[in-house]
Please model this.
Amino acid sequence: MANIRSVKGMVGLVTGGASGLGRATVERLISQGASAVILDLPSSDGHKLAASLGERCAFAPTDVTSESDVKSAVDLAREKYGKVDLAVNCAGIAVAVKTYNFKKDLPHSLEDFTRVITVNIAGTFNVIRLAVGEMGKNEPDADGHRGCIINTASVAAFDGQVGQAAYSASKGGIVGNDSSHCPGPCTNGDSCCHHCPRSVLHAPACRITRESSELPGKAGALSLTSGRSSRVCTPCHCDSRKPHD
Ligand SMILES: NC(=O)c1ccc[n+]([C@@H]2O[C@H](COP(=O)([O-])OP(=O)(O)OC[C@H]3O[C@@H](n4cnc5c(N)ncnc54)[C@H](O)[C@@H]3O)[C@@H](O)[C@H]2O)c1
Model:
């Protein structure tokens, strides 16, 4: 898996796949011969998008924080496409609230903080743990890998702005969480990494299925070429703790 040069024939779960980076990921996967299951909220455009992308795309109405929803999505991938090779976590939410608003004499709502942490960290981990169980059933490739997991952090994990306390904490949590999954043994040979986009236009997720010649060598975008762990996931320069631009 560390030397993936093509996603053709692979099956991917993409959370937040009905919008933004997730949607771009789904569209690229489909256009390059993979199958994709969109895990997104029932209220999203997931159903419409899947219908427009044809047989190799399916929608699983999912709240990533729900064990039963994610299990159903994994089941759908297995039943419809036979396996799970990739899990790309793009579902995420943010609030923009000051830690303390002195004009209103109001502290940041703890409920809002917890909601962001729950969706962004617990939701990502929920998908990782359940996807890994399915990937572990795959035959290992030449590098001994059975699957690949890509999580979306943010430059805010390293460089938060005023009002981003919950968001920055959640993205830092994703970065930290990934270091515990890798390299390999605890996930039975799956690769796991994160990327830290600053903006949609620069987001590595958009590069997931670009021609391999465009991938930056060993530091392959989204670790499809290299990533065994967050420590070697240089799209966000985790080694040096410098954010990806
Ligand atoms: N867009 C950027 O510039 C940028 C920069 C840095 C990081 N990111 C991160 O990239 C990811 C995607 O960002 P985007 O701009 O594409 O966002 P987006 O809002 O366009 O898409 C997020 C998707 O996640 C879904 N979602 C939200 N909560 C969910 C839940 N509980 N269960 C399932 N799905 C849920 C939404 O319905 C939506 O479809 C996020 O994690 C975001 O924090 C984005």
